[in-house]
Amino acid sequence: MSSKFALSEHLRTGVCQITGKPYNCARCDEGKKKGPTGKGNIRTLHVNMSISGAMRRDGEQEWNRLAGIMQYEDGRKLAPKDVRAYFHELHALGADALPMCECDNFCYRHGCRGHREEGEL
């Protein structure tokens, strides 16, 4: 079954920016390792959406809510059943986090791994 969604295909065929190997999100623990924080370091974490959280709330209201904020690459809105199928497909590939913004240190299993910035605390 071919996927309509670019992220599903990316997880099947792409290379993880963290491990440098083909994606294997279901078995990956690399994303848990985050950089140190301490005096003089401000750590930024980007927001992500939990796939398993949405699946736990598995109700018509949840899928309708998500369908209202998601769209295909061409701008068309997704139907609630398409959102549900997409989340189940991503979950089967081992993903549990969807980025909510641009992030260059993102793990689809664990979310943003953090960004250090110099500054005052």
Could you describe the 3D structure shown?
- The chain has 4 helices and 6 strands.
- The chain has helices at 6-13, 51-56, 60-69, 80-92, and strands spanning 41-44, 48-50, 97-99, 106-107, 111-112, 115-118.
- It is globular.
- The strands form 3 sheets. It has a two-stranded antiparallel ribbon. Strands 2-3 form a two-stranded antiparallel ribbon. It has a two-stranded antiparallel sheet with strand order 4-5.
Which labels suit this protein?
single chain, two-stranded antiparallel ribbon, alpha+beta, two-stranded antiparallel sheet, 15% strand, 121 residues
Q: What's the SSE blueprint?
A:
Elements: H1 6-13, E1 41-44, E2 48-50, H2 51-56, H3 60-69, H4 80-92, E3 97-99, E4 106-107, E5 111-112, E6 115-118
Antiparallel strand pairs: 1-6, 2-3, 4-5
Count of DSSP E strands? Answer: 6
Given the C-alpha coordinates, what overall shape results? globular
In angstroms, what separates the terminal alpha carbons?
A: 50 Å
Average residue-wise pLDDT:
81
Q: Helicity range of the residues?
A: 25-40%
Using the CA coordinates, give the radius of gyration.
16 Å
Instruction: Assign the structural class, choosing from mainly alpha, mainly beta, alpha/beta, alpha+beta, or little secondary structure.
Output: alpha+beta
Strand % is 5-15%
Topology as a string of helices (H) and strands (E): HEEHHHEEEE
Largest sheet: 2 strands, antiparallel
Q: Give the number of helices.
A: 4
- Which ranges are low-confidence, i.e. pLDDT below 50, for 5 or more consecutive residues? none
Q: Name the strands of the widest sheet in spatial order.
A: 1-6
